[in-house]
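Researcher: First entry.
Model:
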Amino acid sequence: MAFLNLHRGKLKENFEYLKSTFTAEDISWGVVSKLFCGNRTYLKELIDLGVKEIHDSRISNLAKVKEIDENVQTVYIKPVSKRNIPSMVKYADVSLNSELTTIQWISDESVKQGKKHKIIIMVETGDLREGVMGDHLVDFYAQIFELPNIEIIGLGTNLNCLNGVMPSADKLIQLSLYKQIIELKFNKKIPWVSAGTSVTIPLLLHKQLPKGVNHFRVGETLYFGVDLFEEKVIPGMHGDVFELYAEIIEMQEKPMLPTGSLAANPQGEVLSIDESLYGKSSFRAILDIGLLDVDPKYLLAEDGEFEILGASSDMIILNLGLNPKDYKVGDTIKFGLKYMGALGIMNSSYVDKKISG
């Protein structure tokens, strides 16, 4: 059976790298755990590292965090639907918000539950996902800063999440200026400028991060060690915290081209025939994992001596050429993973999740 392995030691080293980097700049940060899809064992690994703040986009995942350690500060990181507000207030200490009506509902629910709920107001800075437009921000704040049981602890933004707009010093300086304007106008302190995500880390490493930015929300760089500007692993970090192992369930030498009339496969793809391959054969391996679990485009072939030919719902097919490593049925193939590949596998109940030292 295919399984996903988390390397505990490599995760710890990535965590310590980030922790020391943020501490040196007096920056607060939390870990985004949505990649784990609520896996209790993996969540406990995070908490055992000493993580004191966990962010997630699923309320049920935050509930599991509170079950493991009620002292961890939990942060809900997408706009909450009206029907989910009661459970969000129950399990999230903080939420990211950009809708006036929603914040009023959160205030009402917080009063009912007798809780103080913290809010980071999200500001639009160009990527056109969630966020209040900058020229509306002061009026927006004016309508919510005295709502009962609501504490506004920051202004935040998301970049590179929808349209690929990258963070820049100019955009982040603007967010810091909004904070200063609001603090002066309302005589109210806003502790955080939460403009940092994994994609912003290269600005910090290259000393280009504006001083006003003092809070990060980090997922991808923790788990994959990646510099998202240059798409490469940051020196001193690990890109292989996660690895996928899939078992060969069939190994046959077969023609390199199919025979018969061709139509679209179940994914709507029609094979383009390379006539130079007629009469040639190669060894093909079928793996015990498929599209239900992961899109093959997010798999990184560690071996380098095979190619992924395609996939169906439950199987991935490899071309091993002459099979120089003499793979056999029952052997396992190891893959590295991109973020979306790991996310798909974590969301699949058909792939085991394991931990190694």
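Researcher: Second entry.
Model:
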Amino acid sequence: MGTNGSTMLQPLRQGLPPLDPASVSNAASCALPARYEAVREARRFTRRTLEGWDTGDRFDDVCLVVSELVTNALRHALPADTVRHQELNGPVRLHLMRWTERLVCAVRDPSHDSPVARETDDFAAESGRGLFLVESFSDGWGWHPLAGTLDGKVVWALFRLKP
């Protein structure tokens, strides 16, 4: 917790979720425009996708975490000159991947900045809690920079599913 109500910034660990991409049983992705309505679109896409996958009791957790990751990408990872009301060619992309007993949601954005979790003593704060919620509702999360011709980073959250 922060001391004396001050905000403390914590750098996050880098890495990939410990899963073999070749053994994925289901995968889906969608491009999201640079506007805040994209959060609603991401939730709809996630709900439609997960309805066809057996995610057990994790359905609501995954939808909440997707909302937070997409919100963070739109709020913190887009260049300041991005026009948020125009339909752009998806500067943010949502990926959902399911293995037998795990599900990963990953959000790609064009920023090179690492995500930063803020801790604060002010529980009435209206923002700054997104990564806290991601950590609370997922079984693990992290981020990694993109390599090769792709620019930016991916922030991911892992969910364990009951067999």
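Model: Note on the second entry: The beta strands are 8-11, 26-32, 92-98, 102-109, 116-119, 140-145, 153-160.
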